[in-house]
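Database export, one record per block. Field names are fixed; values are copied verbatim from the stored entry.
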Amino acid sequence: MQAALNIEDSMEDLRYNKIVIATDADVDGSIFVCVDYDFFANFFPRRIKENHLVYFTNPIIQSPVIKNRLFIVIVPEEKQAAMEALSGKPEIKLV
C-alpha cells in the first residue's frame, strides 16, 4: 500500500489527495475498512487528521424476480419505488 500511494520515503510524496476505501456492504467489507483504518492510524495518523482518508460503501438491495422483473436498488429512494412497482409485500434482500 505504501508503494501504491508513494509514501515509502516521505508523506509529502503522497500520490493522491484523497484515499478512498471502497468496500461491499457486508461483514467482509467492514473488516477491510477496520484493517485499513488501523494501518493508517498506526503508521500515518496525519492522513486521517488532515482528512485524506475517506470510507465509501455501496449497499445494493436486490428484489426477487417477480413477473420477469428484477429491481436492483442502490439508494433508499429507489427501494420505495421498487416496492410499489412489485405491489403486495415483496421480499427485498441485501446482496
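Remark 1: The longest helix spans residues 27-43.
Remark 2: The beta strands are 19-24, 53-58, 61-62, 72-73, 93-94.
End of record.
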